[in-house]
Amino acid sequence: MARNNLLSTDMENQLYIYNTLDRKKEVFEPINPPHVGMYVCGPTVYSDVHLGNCRTFISFDLIYRYLLHLGYKVRYVRNITDAGHLEGDNDEGDDKFAKKAKLEQLEPMEIVQKYTLGFHEILRIFNTLPPSIEPTATGHIMEQIEMIKEIIANGYAYEIDGTVYFDVEKYSQTCNYGILTNRKLEDLLEGTRELGGQDEKRGRLDFALWIKAKPETLMQWHSPWGWGFPGWHIECSAMSTKYLGTTFDIHGGGMDLQATHHTNEIAQSEACNHTAPAKYWVHTNMLTVNGARMSKTAGNGFLPKELFTGNHPLLERGYSPMTVRFFMAQSHYRSTLDFSNEALQAAEKGYKKLMESLSTLEKIIPSETSSVSIAALHDNCYTAMNDDFNSPVLISHLFEAVRIINSANDGNETLTANDLEILKSLVRTFVFDVLGLIDETKAAGANGNAISGLMDLINDIRKTARANKDWATSDKIRNELTALGFEIKDTKDGFEWKLNK
Ligand SMILES: [Zn+2]
Predict the structure, then answer these.
(1) Class of domain 295-440
(2) What's the pLDDT at 87?
(3) pLDDT band at 493 (very low <50, low <70, confident <90, very high)
(4) Average pLDDT, stretch 337-347?
(5) Total Cβ atoms within 10 A of residue 218
(6) The CATH number of domain 24-284, selected from 3.30.420.10, 3.40.50.720, 3.40.50.620, 3.90.580.10
(7) Which carries the bigger pLDDT value, residue 402 or residue 194?
(8) What is the pTM of this model?
């Protein structure tokens, strides 16, 4: 269902996005419509992707899908951090890749390859669309060096013994360093420790753009300041500028990136390009488990695969990828999302109910008149998504659609042929294209199609058997399918089936 109101000025149809920069919802007005540039900070690939990261990328997948649905031509850039991310986010400690490489006795790029593949696999299981461009930090060392040179030339960075620091105090004379978190420089300084004798940087808030390599540093590159490697923040500024321009529409990431990573990204881009990098800053909230923040140290940070298999002390059993995706969509991306067995089981029921209604929808016989307003339902779905991608409200309207579908099938509501077509298109569009769900009950992909075809064939054979009053064959088919895990329900048209997992 393509939507044609992209250029409409009708307020009801306008998309509003919550902009972290201004701390309010704003009308979305792309810089160069119908094109939209969106940059999302991707994973640091030194370990398995955790569920909190998955939530961020699934949230941006929903945003990406809805923008595409509205007719925007989106260039979605999501990077892979494969160098330069130190243990502490403040330029301290070992390089994460080098540390892991020593532990696992692998080359740093083996670590990168292993976890990049794992990351892609998990996001594929969650049915997220791949970004338009997925640039890596190691593939853009030259761009980062060029950007650092420009920042130095503009007077906002300085070199000390092979390491280059961004000069936050100098920057703050003309720009607002705490713009994203709405904090004054004095407050930020207060929250930072005093510089000690061994610190070489000038200001407490200064951060590294380029870091001098030690002889044993595994990944290092030649630069105007000697051998070294880039600081973590510069890669996103360099790559977003390269692929989306000096100013683009949407910059996103997890809420935990606001205070340091994104604050420094803005400063770097302003200091280099003399313009703010993004018009709208979008941040996704955290995950909690039974009310407590999810973290590895707390022992409640399960991995996606543990969630699917149920192989974790906090999980009563496994939950399917689509149950988890549906569960995440039931919560707004800016709210915290609490994982519990009860909530996941409720989501599983809701997801199955939604999928079943899509099959029921095919069986409804149209009437002369409609007893319900499908136009109102249509508008409600768009209004929900236009209100800062409010997926939980959208889902509540989809459950109103489920009620209408079941009532119409039972003969308690009526729908005209035209309304029925609109309803089918509306529900399929929002369930599959926008929410990104797949009907797991019928299995996904080529295998799923093959199973569907096979079941149609078996249905036909059984119908012939029943027409010939060959009850033995009819019962045998039913019993054997049930034994294989299919749930079979006799109908006037043969049977309906469901694969119980
Ligand atoms: Zn980033």
Answers:
(1) mainly alpha
(2) 52
(3) confident
(4) 94
(5) 17
(6) 3.40.50.620
(7) 402
(8) 0.85
Cβ neighbors of 285 (< 8 A, separation 6 or more) are 255, 333, 334, 335, 336, 337
The residue extents of the domains of the chain are 24-284, 295-440, 445-499
Residue 356 and residue 467 in contact, taking contact as beta carbons nearer than 8 Å: no
**How many angstroms does the Cα of residue 230 sit away from the middle of ligand 1?**
13
Residue 87 Cα to ligand 1 midpoint, Å, equals 16
Q: Burial of 484 by CB count in 10 Å (0-12 exposed, 13-18 middle, 19+ buried)?
A: exposed
User: How does 379-413 read in b/e, with b if 16+ C-beta sit within 10 Å?
Assistant: ebbbebbbbbbbbebbbebbeebbebbbbbbeeeb
Expressed in angstroms and rounded, the spacing between residue 203 Cα and the centre of ligand 1 is 23
pLDDT at 223: 98
Could you give the CA distance from residue 21 to residue 181 in angstroms, rounded to a whole number? 8
Nearest to 217 by CA among 140, 162, 289: 162
Report the distance separating Cα 363 and Cα 267, nearest Å.
58
Q: Copy the structure tokens of residue 483.
A: 């034994």
User: Cβ distance 331 to 55 under 8 Å?
Assistant: no
The DSSP code for 274 is S
Cα 276 to ligand 1 centre (Å): 15
Lowest model confidence (mean pLDDT) among 113-122, 271-280, 451-460 = 451-460
Q: Helices 96-104 and 108-125 meet at what angle, rounded to 10?
A: 100
Residue type, 292: A
